[in-house]
Amino acid sequence: MTSTKPSYRDLMTRELLLWAVVALFSKAPVAMAPLALVFLSRESPGGYTLGATLASAYVLGEVVGAPLLGARLGRSRMRPQLALGLLGGALAFGALPLARDAPSPVLIGLAFLAGAAPAACPGGVRSLLTRLVEERTVPRALSAEATLTQITWAAAPGLVALLALQMDPGAPLALGAVLAAVAALLLLALPERPTATTGAPTKVRMTRSLLAGWPVYLTSAAAMAMLATAELVLPALLEDRDIPVGWSGALLAAFALSSALGAFCYGLRTWPGSVRAQSLVFLTLTAACVSLVAFLPGLPGVALGLMLAGVFQSGVMVSRNLSLREQLPEEAHAAGYSVMYAVQGMGYSLTASLSAVALDKAGPSTAILGGVAITLLITAASAVAEGRSARGTTPPGPSTEERSDARARAGATDAP
């Protein structure tokens, strides 16, 4: 065991660079899909209404597919299952541009399949990452993953618009199909370390383990409620303040980039307090910064509030993943990440609906403050639940030291 302080330099290995390519190629189609579906149908008879319906079907597919497919990942090798999911998504992505003139139910079904088939991949790929690194390096690895995710989300809208307007409305989806297919092939080249436990977990044990993480899932729902508030109300807020609506894209890109910077900074050092406490503190700070958007005047005020919110939002992302790892046994990590992914989608969709009602009944500032209130309520409920969980028993699973020892033994066994 080494006493050297972990750093990002520890992540510069051949295996982790290959993982980064797989993660990028599997995340990019997800980031591009909703806007790409809108551009695909923009000039069709269904227009923007059909595009919004297809985007909703895609998100619904993710919400349904993530827990159903993710729960199976802990029972056998993950790579073949993840690869099949990515290939299924690639086929659906590729079929959508070819079937753009098909009846709406066909397109809706393909959009649903495009979201559902690879829905377990975000959780599975994250779980593979944590198995490829030493336990002490996991916070840096998850920070690097969050940085990669935010950069991908920042670049995706511009790439979709460029391809759809300069090449073909179906070009972004075609690119998504290619990236997903390549990610599936590269995924099979990644090593998969065995878990510290032996044998496949039973369905009852897996279900019990996943349910134990529900306070962390609440935190994820709160985080996505905050993101939905920032994204969906922003155009209306800019218009209400006589600021060109075109600034919304640049502001959201700045939000994502500041979040990437925040995630990188989170991994540079060890922060005080438990990761559960960190998640709650970061989430409260994010809500406070988003509320500033409702009060600070002009474009600089809106930009400052969003960028500060992005920095703290990244802390929520990393700390909640670390918190879930502590809460669940190792064989349930991939499934837990997938359930959390589904809860994020539900939190986003619910807040989107409430924001639409608030915009209709009141103004954009009120809608933003309503989203902040929802976030704080969920955060408070999560804090109470986690406090009770900390006083109770935790689900059975190997300790950090046992997981490290088991991984070391597995590495020695796999070595030539």
TrEMBL record:
The keyword Membrane applies. It holds the Pfam family MFS_1. InterPro entries: MFS, MFS_trans_sf. Gene3D superfamilies: MFS general substrate transporter like domains. The chain crosses the membrane at residues 48-70, 82-100, 106-125, 146-165, 171-190, 211-234, 246-268, 280-296, 365-385. The keyword Membrane applies. GO terms for cellular component: plasma membrane. It is found in: Cell membrane. It is a multi-pass membrane protein. This is MFS transporter. It comes from Streptomyces spongiae.
